[in-house]
Write a structure and sequence with these properties.
This is glucarate dehydratase. With about 400 residues, this protein is an alpha/beta fold. Helix content is about 35%, strand content about 20%.
Length: about 400
């Protein structure tokens, strides 16, 4: 089996509402690039990458001369063909590699008639539990604003009833830490049996992080995720706060993982199949974490069904996956895969059982959302449409005003 073509299509899929985060917002939609890796036997493997547009599509087209004739089974050679560590100093292709690796794993699984989870060593669970990824957000048609503790609790309550979530993650860093602490405590009061996690995307100062961390020590926490930026900052918090720390920002490769093993800053490493350059690097990293008694969880960088499938297959095979995975997925209104969105049941999603990734493209949906991308274009992830001229600093000093209701037109 040899690669004969690589095609990339950028789509934009609507979210329920614009989601706010510490560095800006998702402006009511996700922009993703869908990758198709075609082999000489007619099989097509699927990949996915965040963001996109003409530059991403051109970047994938530029990889074809590197990979035409490449055997998708040769995954280790694929890594060096695309992301040689020395060459990557000039052209970092980690996320491109991830999408192509997804496609190659999909091809290999289809060729052999087995799922990706079987290629990775065999599933030890048939479903992966997820947290209710909670965002502060602007209002949209049919979906209310989330800004106050009462609004947040009501949203979490509805998600819990609809999907069965027993873990709740609050994406913070939008409003002053004191307001977000009030919101977090409101979740704890409403769901005393459920577990909690908080992620301000590293924009708190050390003093704010310590105040917040100490204030939640008595709650039913999974972990405090990236309260400050950098391994040294995390170490300082970890030394003084009795809540496990997690990161998806500063342990995203093996050099950083080694540093964290030698001098621990984070207790939990959040494995992202895109940030790490594919599913297989995440599996390798999980083995290191198992050896050194670091926790692992599956991280979400904003997925459609293809990347979600990679997260599910990864989660299916990790013996040390003791935390629920993250996913933006329930925030989407639709998907580009056949059958539409994968369903939650009891707070979990079943691991696809078909060959390869076990998902296939719905061509009509892909065409519809590719056209929507051409109509709307991209958006600046690191800007907030409700705060013209604002941008985040690290640590941030200019938080949104929680007393002001946001009104935006996209």
């Amino acid at each position: 089996m040899k690669i004969v073509d690589i095609r990339a299509t950028t789509v934009t899929v609507p979210l329920e509402a614009p989601l706010r985060h510490s560095n800006g917002a998702h402006w009511g939609r996700f922009v993703r690039t869908i990758v198709e890796v075609e082999a000489d036997n007619g099989l097509i493997g699927l990949g996915e990458m965040g963001g996109g547009g003409e530059s991403a599509e051109a970047a994938f087209r530029a990889l074809l001369p590197y990979l035409k004739g490449h055997d998708p089974f040769q995954l280790e050679a694929l890594r060096f063909k695309i992301a040689n560590p020395t060459a990557s100093l000039y052209n970092n292709r980690t996320q491109l590699l991830a999408a192509i690796e997804f496609g190659c794993l999909d091809l290999v699984g289809q060729q052999l008639g087995v799922s990706v989870a079987e290629l990775l060593g065999g599933r030890i669970r048939d479903e992966v539990p997820f947290a209710s990824y909670l965002f502060f957000r602007y209002a949209a048609e049919g979906h209310a604003e989330i800004r106050t503790p009462e609004q947040l609790v009501e949203h979490a309550r509805s998600l819990r009833a609809a999907h069965g979530f027993g873990v709740h993650k609050l994406k913070g860093g939008v409003f002053p830490p004191g307001h977000e602490l009030e919101c977090y405590r409101a979740l704890a009061d409403e769901f005393p049996e459920d577990r909690l996690r908080y992620d301000p995307n590293a924009v708190l100062s050390l003093a704010e992080a310590l105040r917040f961390g100490k204030a939640i020590e008595g709650l039913n926490n999974d972990y405090l995720e990236d309260p400050v930026w950098g391994l040294e900052g995390l170490r300082s918090v970890r030394e003084q706060v009795r809540v496990p720390l997690a990161t998806n920002t500063v342990v995203v490769n093996f050099e950083q993982l080694a540093s964290n093993v030698l001098r621990r800053a984070a207790d939990v490493v959040l494995l992202d199949t895109t940030f790490w350059g594919g599913v297989r690097p995440c599996l390798k990293a999980a083995g290191v974490c198992e050896t050194f008694q670091l926790g692992v969880a599956v991280h979400s960088s904003g997925e459609l069904g293809i990347q979600l499938a990679t997260m599910l297959h990864l989660g299916a095979v990790l013996p040390n996956l003791t935390y629920a995975a993250d996913a933006h997925y329930h925030q989407l209104r639709d998907d580009v895969i056949e059958g539409g969105k994968l369903a939650y049941s009891g707070g979990a999603i079943a691991v696809p059982t078909g060959p390869g990734l076990g998902v296939r493209l719905d061509r009509e949906r892909v065409a519809r959302y590719a056209e929507l991308y051409r109509e709307l274009g991209g958006y600046p992830y690191d800007r907030d449409p409700g705060r013209p001229g604002w941008y985040a600093q690290v640590p941030n000093e200019r938080f949104a005003d929680p007393t002001v209701s946001g009104n935006i037109t996209l």
